[in-house]
Amino acid sequence: MPILPTERDPRFITIRRGGTLTDENHHLLAEWAAVCAEHVLPLFEAARPGDPAVRDAIELGWAWIRGEVPMKEAHQRAFVANAAGKGLPDPAKFAALAAGQSVAVAHVAAHELGAAAYAIRAVAASVPAGEADAARLRERDWQRAQLPGEIRDLVLDDQRLRSPICWHVFDD
After folding, report:
1. What pLDDT score was predicted for residue 1?
2. For residue 77, how far is the Cα from the chain centroid?
3. Do 121 and 91 touch, CB atoms closer than 8 A?
4. What's the pLDDT at 3?
5. How many Cβ atoms from other residues are within 10 Å of residue 6's Cβ?
6. Among candidates 150, 102, 153, 111, which has minimal Cα distance to 12?
7. 96 with 17: CB under 8 angstroms?
8. What DSSP letter does each residue of the chain carry, written as one string?
9. β-sheet bridge partners, residue 14
10. DSSP conformation letters of 102-114
11. Where are the domains of the chain?
């Protein structure tokens, strides 16, 4: 299931590419995505102790934010993180996908919501089925508390618009 909209939202396209997103807000989106992915990293590491692929992807995303690596390098690392989760139980798999989405924000800012959605799915999958919805809401609310004020309204509106293609994880 695709988590990116069919039509790209200009608010998530940088100004130099014809959108309205500033570089500063692009970096804030990447930071928030990295924080969401880091929050569920222990779920991957519990399943694959000693496998640095997912942690390295998140760290490379931070390096891109600091201007230490080019976008193409960050984008390529997303595929490594995604592959690290293949065949693992859902909590670990979704945590790996959250990391892949977070580092992909360097390439396409709208991946920020993918990082958050997969992190929520990871948490919900890590608890007994009867507790999944409460865990989903706790993680969603925790993520929202981490949002920088400069991008809060943008992300909350994006959650409202894209929740149907993100498994409804952002719904009340």
Report:
1. 54
2. 14
3. no
4. 85
5. 6
6. 111
7. no
8. ---S-SSPPGGGSBGGGTSSB-HHHHHHHHHHHHHHHHHHHHHHHHHSTT--HHHHHHHHHHHHHTTSS-HHHHHHHHHHHHHHTTTS-HHHHHHHHHHHHHHHTTT-GGGHHHHHHHHHHHHHHTS-GGGHHHHHHHHHHHHHHH--HHHHHHHHHHHHHHGGGGTTTT--
9. 21
10. HHHTTT-GGGHHH
11. 23-166
What is the pLDDT, as a whole number, of residue 82?
A: 96
Q: Which residue has the tokens 């948490």?
A: 123
Residues of the chain with pLDDT under 70: 1-2
Cα separation, 9 vs 160, in Å, equals 13
Measured on CA atoms in the order 157, 162, 166, 172, is the torsion positive or negative?
positive
Measured CA to CA, the distance from residue 155 to residue 132 in angstroms comes to 23
HSE-CB of 10 using CA atoms within 13 angstroms: 6
